[in-house]
Input
Amino acid sequence: MNQNEVKLYEARANIIKALAHPSRLYIVDMLNKQPRAVGELTEMIGADTSTVSKHLSVLKNAGIVVDEKRGTAVIYTLKCPCILDFIGCIEEVIESNTKTQVEILSCCKTRAAR
Amino acid sequence: MNQNEVKLYEARANIIKALAHPSRLYIVDMLNKQPRAVGELTEMIGADTSTVSKHLSVLKNAGIVVDEKRGTAVIYTLKCPCILDFIGCIEEVIESNTKTQVEILSCCKTRAAR
DNA sequence: TATATCCTTGGCAATATTGCCAAATAAGAA
DNA sequence: TTCTTATTTGGCAATATTGCCAAGGATATA
Output
């Protein structure tokens, strides 16, 4: 890896890191349906407001969401809906893993039956 | 978030976490071109063998790659090529962020020129 | 068997992430 | 202005990640 490659992969990793948390993935899913205020998301997630606010700032810094003030509230919106294709791929990996598990289990069953 | 939702988002986050590292993203890119032995990847990355081996085991545990022994070597192969669509999306986010930066800069230039 | 090669694992220190509480800030309402 | 609501920020302890070194398999070759 040369310097430029390192920079490229670091840039990618930084965005992926922003997604690498259950609450933040949940937020992305929720914002895909509609923009939401911090308070709404906080209630849906069931964590401290400050925690959710920090999660949102991680997503914002990564350029995944944008915010907009409306009165005292702050509305967050998903900026790149392609994030969801991404999640489709993750689901494929999960399914593939599950399939592998099932195969392992059925293999053991067969052997035990002999 | 109910219990099942928590489990779902945790499962997704675990796979995304496995991708959230520059060296591991590089490995995924390299394995997309062709399967590789640990030693080859180690040389390409320029880290300690043990470090690369641990990165590979993270990817393997997440179900993103598979390994296969060949003599003393261990060949790793990308299991889910859809991972790359995923990276396409990440590139979109990076480009979008860059665009935003350019806009901010050009805005400042305009003001400075007045 | 001995020896070399390739890879994984254990251990550990440095660093980063997470989530809560408390305090600060922002904006509208009284 | 003062009060209230909505959100962000600072601080901190608990936890997780990272990367090196050293040691431990596993497999081929002499």
Remarks:
- Residues 37-39, 42, 49-50, 52-54, 56-57, 71-74 of chain B lie near DNA strand C (CB under 10 Å from a C1').
- The two ends of chain B are 52 Å apart (CA to CA).
- Chain B has two domains: 1-80, 82-114.
- Residues 82-114 of chain B form one domain.
